[in-house]
User: What shape does this take?
Amino acid sequence: MRALVQTVSRASVTVDGEVVGAISDGLLVLVGVRHSDSDVEAQALARKVYELRILDDEKSAADVGAPLLVISQFTLYGDARKGRRPSWTAAAPAEAAQPLVTAFIEALRSRGALVETGRFRAHMLVESVNVGPRTVLLEM
Assistant: This one.
């Protein structure tokens, strides 16, 4: 699994004109799943994201209770090394990815995280105002 984590002053996700998730002063987390991932990776990645010291004064979301907006993002496993059209073969199919994204979100919540989400397989409009900017790519 991969997570692209960004510090944001605000972020939101809109589906069909409706805001389905929004946060302020927290983390925007884009999550990608590959074929070989399991619940083990989902749990480990959730812990890593929640305890990542990326906020001001080297604090984590766990330290300060910062909210997280989690968005499923299969394109994190896009491979554009050859040609101009990315290949998505490393990304898990939706049927395999959705339960692991859900497990990732539930693992965050079980740690006390305040989590907002997008909608799996929906066309989402994601807006964010990055702080810093600080962006970290994590992989399990």
Remarks:
- The first strand starts at residue 2 and ends at 15.
- The mean pLDDT is 96.
